[in-house]
Amino acid sequence: MAIGRYEPAKIEKKWQDVWESSQCFKCGTDPSRPKYYVLEMFPYPSGRIHMGHVRNYSIGDVVARFKRMRGFNVLHPMGWDAFGLPAENAAIKHKTHPAAWTYGNISDMRSELRRLGYSYDWARELATCRPEYYRHEQLFFTRFFEKGLVYRKKAPQNWCPSCMTVLANEQVEDGKCWRCDSEVEQKELSQWFLRITDYAEELLEWLQRMEGHWPERVLTMQRNWIGKSVGAEIAFEVEGLESSVKVFTTRPDTLYGATFMSLAAEHPLVETLIQDSPEAGKVREFTARIRNMDKRVRTAEDMEKEGVFTGRYCLNPVTGERMPIFVANFVLMDYGSGAVMAVPAHDQRDFDFAKKYGLPMRVVITPKGGDLKVEDLTEAYAAPGVLAASGEFTGMDNERAKEAIVEHLAAKGLGEPTVNYRLKDWNISRQRFWGAPIPIIFCESCGPVAVPAEDLPVVLPEDAMPLADGRSPLSSLDSFVNVPCPKCGRPARRETDTLDTFFESSWYFARYTSARDETPFDEEALRYWMPVDQYIGGIEHAILHLLYSRFFTKALRDEGFMPVDEPFNNLLTQGMVYKDGAKMSKSKGNVVDPGSMIEKYGADATRLYILFASPPEKDLEWSDASVEGAYRFVNRVWRLAQDLEGRVPSLAPCSDPGGMELSASARDLRRKEHETALKVAADVEERFQLNTAIAAVMELVNEVSRSKDELIETEDGRFVLGSALATTLCVLSPFTPHLCEELWEALGYEGRLAEMAWPSPDEAAMKVDAVTLAVQVNGKVRGTLSAPVDASDEAVKEAALQVENVQRRLEGKTVRKIIVVKGKLVNIVAG
Question: Looking at residue 563, what DSSP letter applies?
Fold first, then answer.
C-alpha cells in the first residue's frame, strides 16, 4: 500500500469508523486483568465544545490509550451533565422544551467529540436528565430521608432573582450567582438539606491520605472549606429572658475580657431580643441591609465595622458583668453559632468596633514578663502570654488556660469543649423545572412521605413547559401534584422542587461501571472498577463537585451501595486555555472554534498542539503560529514514512538485532529509540508531563531524519531504521492516533496500534560506552574530553591535563587540585 498525500479529514474519518465498527474501546469486567479507570469530568451539553473541552479530553485520551498499550483493561466513558438552568433559559428564549434543546445539543457535541478520535466506550454513555438515570438518585434520596441524612427546614437562603432559584453557599461567588452573575439576595424558604456535616471529620481526615495523589492546592481549598476549629461552646444568659446566647470560641482564655456581644444579622434570637424594644425599627432596618450584603465583603479586614444595639444585655458567665448585645455586620451565621463574645483588647475586629461605639475594654492577657494597660493599646494584643485580671486563672499561660477555663465552665454547666466546622449542610432544593423531581409527597396526616421504591422514578412531565418568567410549572400541574399518600391513601401533594444538579454529578462516575443495569450498580462491576484511577478536570470544581462527590461516595457506602471510601485515587486539574491574555469567552470575542481547527489542520494536529503547548496543569496561551507548527510536525512524520516506505523492514518496535553487528551510527539511533520509549512512558505514567513526552518523540524523529541517508546504505542501518520508525509511530499514537494508525497499516506492520503493546526498551541498547565531560580551569569551561564511562578518576584527570586549550590556560600556573564530578565535568584548580 503506497503512502499517498496526507489528507487528515479522510484518514481521520476512516479510523474513527474502524474503531467504532470494531468496538475497539468497549470494555468489560475482567478480574484476570489489571483495571484502569480514567475519567474526565463530563460536560454540560451547551451545544458546542470549546478548547477547554479539547484540552481536558485530549489529556484523558492519551492516558487511556497509553494504559491500554501497557496491558490494562481500560474504562474510559463519556456522558452528559444534562439538567440545569442554561437548558431551561434557552428553552424559554427559543420557545421549545428543555429536553428537545438538551438532546439536540448532546447529538451535536457527541459528533464533535467523535471527530477528535477519543477512545470512549460509547456503550456506557449516559445523560443525567433521563429517567433511567435519575430514578436511582431518587432511590438514594429516599434512603437518605429514611436514615435522617436528608431533612427539611425553614431558613434564610441564597436566592438568585434572575435564575429564580436557591443557591448553595458554594454557588455564591463574591455575592453573585455562579451561573448568571446576578446579585444574590436572602430569602426565607423551606428547603431540603443533606447532612454533609455528619461527614465533616471523615472528609477532613481522608485528605491527608490523598496527599501526593491530589494537587496540594485542591487539598488546601477543601481543608479551608471544611474549616475545622477546636474550642468551646459557652452560654451567656440573656438578662430578663429565659434564654441564652450560645457562643463558639477558639479563645476561651479571653473570656474574662469579654465586654459585649455581637450577633449576626441572620441570628434567630434577634427578633426575640428586640420585641417591644424602642430599638426594634432601627435593628430591623440594619439587619435587612446587612443580610443582603456579600458575605466576603462583610468579613473583609478593610470593611468598616458597623453595628446596632438591640437594647438587651447578657451576662458574662465568669464575671457576672452585663454585656450589651449588638447586631454587627462582620458576624456571620455560617461560622459557629452566629454569635461572637467580643474581647476588644485581644481581637482586632472587636477593638475597631469598641473604639467606634465607645465600648469598654479589659486586658486579660499580657506578654510574659511584661505589663499591658488598656490606655496604651493602639491595636488589639493577639500574641501569646499569661492571663491577667482573670480570677483564679491569673498568671497562667494562656494556652494552658484554654483547657482550664473550659473545664471550669463544664463543671458549672456553663460550657463545654466543642469542635466547630465552617462546612454547612448542603441545600439540595431548587425551584426550577429542568431537574430531577424530589421524591417526596406531603400529606396533612402523615407529613412528608418518601415515594416508595416501586413507584420510582417520579418522572418530570414531558408535557410541561417552564414559564416565561422562569418559574417552574410543576406546582400548577394538577396531574403531577395531586396524588394519594403512600401511607394512608388520603389526598396529598407532591414536592415541586427539583434536585440541585450537583446531586446528579456526585455519583455519575459509579454509574458508568454498569450504565445499563436495572439496579443502581452491578456489584461485581462496581467492585472491579471503582475507585476511578485518574480523574481530570478544572480547578474551579475543587470545592463544589469534588467535595460533594467525596461525601456522596461515603454516604452511599454507609447505605451498602458503594464498596469504597473515596471516589478518585488521583486527580489532575488542567489549566485554562487563554487567548490574547484572557480566558477564552464569547463576550471577549477571543474564542477559537475546535471545529474550524479540525477543518484546517485535522484532529491530530489540533490534539498535538493542545498537548504540547504547555504542561497539563499550567494555563495555556493559544498561538495560531504554534498550531501551524504542530501541523508541520505531523506532515514531517508523514513524509518520513513516505521516504522510508519499502526501503526498511517492517519490524516490531524496539526490535532486537540479535547477533547483527551495529555501526556506531546505528547504535546511536538504537539508543535514542529505546531512550525515547522509556522517557515517553515515564513522562505519561509517572510525571504527567505530556508536553515533554511529545518533545522526546520530536527528538527521535529528528534523529531518524538526520541519520537515515547514512543508515539506509547498510543492512544493520536499515534494521535500526525500521525498528525506530515502528517505535516512533507506536509512542506517538496516543497523541496523534489517526496519523499513526494510517502509517502503521500503510507500512505493512501487523495489527492495530490501538491494540498494540507498548515497546519494551532494552537496557543494553541504552548503555553508553563513552561520555563527554566538560573541563574547567578555576570554574570556567575551557574544553571537553571524551572518556569511557568506566574510566578511573586518575585516567580522567590525566586526560583533562592533555586538552590543548587547558594546557594553554595552565601555563605559568601550579595545579593545586583536580576535582572530578563523575559523568559530568572535571575542574582544575590552579594558581
Answer: S
User: Phi and psi of 793, rounded to 5°?
Assistant: -60, -40
Q: Which residues contact 702 (CB under 8 A, 6 or more apart)?
A: none
Q: Tell me how far apart the alpha carbons of residues 69 and 62 are, in angstroms, rounded to a whole number.
A: 11
Alpha helices in 483-615 (DSSP H): 501-505, 508-511, 523-529, 544-558, 594-601, 603-612
Hey, which residues does 630 pair with through a beta bridge? none
Residue ranges of the chain with pLDDT lower than 70? 1, 168-170, 586-587
State the amino acid at position 277 in one-letter form.
S
In the chain the first and final C-alpha atoms are separated, in Å, by 69
Residues making up the chain, counted from first to last? 831
Model pLDDT, residue 87: 87
Contact 76, 121 (CB under 8 A): yes
Quickly list DSSP for 130-175: SHHHHHHHHHHHHHHHHHTSEEEEEEEEEEETTTTEEE-GGGEETT
Measuring CA to CA, which residue among 645, 677, 647 is closest to residue 742?
645
Each residue of 52-86: b (16+ CB within 10 Å) or e? Answer: bbbbbbbbbbbbbbbbbbeebbbbbbbbbbbbbbb
Q: Give the SS3 label for residue 802.
A: coil
Element (H, E) at 444: none
CB-CB neighbours of 96 under 10 Å: 14
Residues with Cβ within 8 Å of residue 62, at least 6 apart in sequence = 611, 684, 690, 734, 735
Q: How much is the pLDDT for 46?
A: 86
Q: What pLDDT does 523 receive?
A: 96
- The whole-number pLDDT of residue 1 equals 62
Query: Peptide bond before 367: cis, by omega within 30 degrees of 0?
Result: no
Per-residue pLDDT tens digits for 338-347: 999 999 999 9
Q: Which of 68, 58, 54 is nearest to 25 (CA)?
A: 68
Neighbours of 46 (CB within 10 A): 16
CA nearest to 671, candidates 657, 682, 689, 659: 657
For position 400, what pLDDT does the model report? 97
pLDDT per position as a tens digit, 259-313:
999 999 999 999 999 998 898 999 999 999 998 787 777 887 888 999 999 999 9
CA dihedral defined by 337, 426, 567, 225, rounded to 10 degrees? -40
How does 318-350 read in b/e, with b if 16+ C-beta sit within 10 Å? bbeeebbbbbbbbbbbebbbbbbbbbbbbbebb
- The DSSP string of 227-282 is -EEEEEEEEEEBTTSS-EEEEEES-GGGGGG--EEEE-TT-TTHHHHTTT-TTHHH
**Are the C-beta atoms of 60 and 119 separated by less than 8 Å?**
no
| Per-residue pLDDT, 151 | 97
Q: How far apart are CA 290 and CA 381, in angstroms?
A: 28
CA torsion, ordered 542, 543, 544, 545, to nearest 10 deg: 40
Grid coordinates standing for 334?
A: 455560617
CB 674 within 8 A of CB 762: yes
Q: For residue 486, which of 148, 190, 141, 142 has the smallest C-alpha distance?
A: 142
Cell numbers 547498510: residue: 714
Q: What is the CA radius of gyration of the chain?
A: 34
Asked whether the bond before 457 is cis by omega within 30 degrees of 0, the reply is yes
The pair phi, psi for residue 591, each rounded to 5°, is -80, 135
β 386-387/365-366 pair status: antiparallel
pLDDT score for 789: 86
Rounded to the nearest 5 degrees, what angle is found at the Cα of 193, between the Cα atoms of 191 and 197?
A: 150
